[in-house]
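Figure 6 in text form: structure in, sequence out.
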């Protein structure tokens, strides 16, 4: 697939739908009064979210949720390779955007309201309940129903109102979280967290005017709320089948015959004008559902791992630049998945043989695979894995460390094990490898005004050789304006050495030295650059000792 085809398919799946998306101009709108010095639609969104949060929520909560130096989201697509006709799944890269923190906070508070008795929250729980709750008769059909493009078709205003009604039933939201807000306040918070989501695609700005963005923390929650409201309506009308389970947009039922299955499909498609369902019926007594192959073996349903025809077996290669612990962990994880999804020993053995073939192609040593399988089976027999997982997760401190090589990693593990004994806590290393994406520059640059946040910067005086190194998690232009205050080292330098000569275009004296990922990254790079450049205006010789543990 070349770039033009990628853009075409992604456009067809997203921005070409003018009922859901619209272009946004980056030009400053005409307004009365003195215009702000800096303008971009993203900055306007930040102001809206901040004003809404501070108006409604307590000060300490608002401070943690208000956007500072948010990034502009961008749209990308993942090919649906399992479909007969190639299509794209549009996804919004929303991490650290202007409403991301608010959306995560709302999701954590409101998640209990998004489920009902039909909701599947975990595939393993679903597999465990099948033999307990479901007996089928010969001739019954296994049927699944799928919602086409659920996320972008969720009617936001309607769903937000449903969620707010649930949250304020008996004033549950305020009582549960010790707050004092109104139902309209919650609607306002949900609106700024989801509606009018701003993003960039192919160099242009857009906003999503309806539906929820796939990539937003509130996406699954709102989709579940909307779907559960439809189910409750159908349940009241007596139109739901006796056994009905749903995971977001995938639904599983058992039908007595094909005609009944088609009738229920028609019922679903008339339940709400915003969404359309498709139907898949078991073939040769088998139906895939959520990575599990369901097998019609009346009077019971058997299960095993489902492998898509397009599966290429691409997993972590043995020669990948990561700690060996993660390679063994991958083996154990795949075995655990096979064990929990297989309803019989023969299905588990069959999946183990497939996994051995997959890992052999990935150059995993045969003795490592065999020993991991043996250890896994022994732990299952004695249930030691469950006891160990509970004991090791309690009172654990994890330290993130860049992975250099295996010998270095082993030395670090030994040293941290000794430290754990001294501190009486479990100190565990988490090794990270440099991603290949870091080696390539972005192909879609964003406007400099809003793309200079979470950076380490350097100030160079335009009158002499004085310099200063600092960092900011917010937008750089805001930090530059802050250096005009009398408490700033930069302002003090001009007042003492060059009175009255602070430049109007102070921003031209600043340069980004390093784009960072988070506050810790900023502090480390600030310290290293201060030691390297030795700027005369910095009071401290480093920053990490003074601030990292504050």
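Output sequence:
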């Amino acid at each position: 697939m070349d770039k033009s085809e990628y853009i075409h398919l992604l456009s067809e799946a997203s921005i070409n739908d003018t009922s859901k998306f619209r272009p946004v101009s980056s030009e400053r709108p005409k307004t009365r009064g003195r215009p702000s010095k800096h303008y971009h639609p993203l900055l306007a969104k930040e102001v809206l979210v901040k004003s809404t949060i501070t108006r409604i929520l307590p000060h300490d909560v608002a401070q943690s949720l208000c956007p500072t130096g948010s990034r502009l989201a961008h749209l990308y697509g993942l090919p649906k390779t399992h479909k007969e006709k190639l299509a794209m799944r549009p996804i919004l890269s929303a991490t650290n955007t202007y409403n991301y923190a608010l959306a995560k906070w709302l999701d954590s508070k409101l998640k209990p309201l998004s489920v009902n008795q039909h909701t599947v929250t975990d595939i393993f729980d679903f597999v465990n309940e099948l033999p307990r709750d479901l007996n089928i008769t010969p001739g019954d059909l296994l049927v699944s129903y799928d919602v086409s493009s659920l996320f972008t078709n969720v009617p936001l205003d309607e769903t937000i109102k449903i969620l707010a009604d649930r949250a304020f039933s008996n004033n549950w939201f305020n009582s549960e979280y010790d707050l004092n807000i109104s139902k309209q306040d919650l609607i306002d918070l949900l609106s700024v967290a989801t509606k009018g989501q701003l993003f960039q695609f192919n160099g242009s700005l857009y906003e999503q005017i309806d539906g929820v963005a796939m990539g937003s923390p509130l996406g699954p929650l709102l989709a579940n709320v909307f779907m559960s409201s439809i189910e409750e309506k159908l349940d009241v009308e007596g139109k739901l089948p006796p056994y009905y389970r749903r995971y977001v947009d995938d639904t599983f039922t058992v039908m007595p015959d094909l005609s009944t299955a088609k009738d229920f499909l028609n019922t679903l498609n008339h339940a709400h004008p915003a969404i359309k369902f498709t139907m898949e019926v078991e073939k040769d007594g088998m139906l895939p559902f959520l990575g599990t192959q369901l097998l019609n073996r009346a009077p019971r349903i058997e299960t095993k791992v489902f492998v898509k025809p397009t599966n290429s077996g691409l997993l972590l290669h043995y020669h990948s630049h990561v700690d060996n612990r993660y390679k063994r962990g991958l083996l154990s994880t795949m075995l655990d998945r096979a064990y929990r999804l297989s309803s019989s020993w023969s299905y588990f053995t069959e999946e183990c043989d497939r996994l051995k073939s997959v890992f052999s192609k990935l150059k995993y040593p045969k003795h490592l695979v065999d020993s991991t399988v043996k250890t896994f089976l022994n732990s299952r027999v004695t249930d030691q894995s469950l006891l160990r997982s509970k004991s090791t997760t309690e009172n654990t401190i994890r330290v993130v460390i860049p992975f250099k090589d295996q010998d270095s990693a082993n030395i670090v593990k030994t040293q941290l094990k000794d430290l754990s004994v001294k501190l009486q806590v479990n100190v565990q290393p988490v090794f990270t490898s440099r991603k290949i994406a870091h080696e390539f520059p972005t192909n879609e640059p964003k406007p400099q005004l809003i793309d200079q946040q979470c950076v380490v910067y350097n100030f160079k005086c335009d009158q002499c050789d004085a310099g200063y190194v600092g960092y900011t998690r917010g937008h750089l232009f805001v930090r530059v304006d802050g250096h005009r205050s009398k408490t700033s080292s930069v302002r003090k330098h001009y007042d003492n050495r060059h009175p009255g000569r602070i430049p109007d275009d102070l921003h031209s004296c600043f340069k980004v030295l390093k784009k960072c990922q988070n506050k810790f990254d900023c502090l480390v790079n600030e310290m290293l650059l201060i030691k390297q450049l030795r700027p005369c205006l910095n009071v401290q010789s480093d920053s990490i000792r003074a601030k990292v543990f504050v």
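Caption detail: The CA atoms of residues 88 and 233 lie 32 Å apart.
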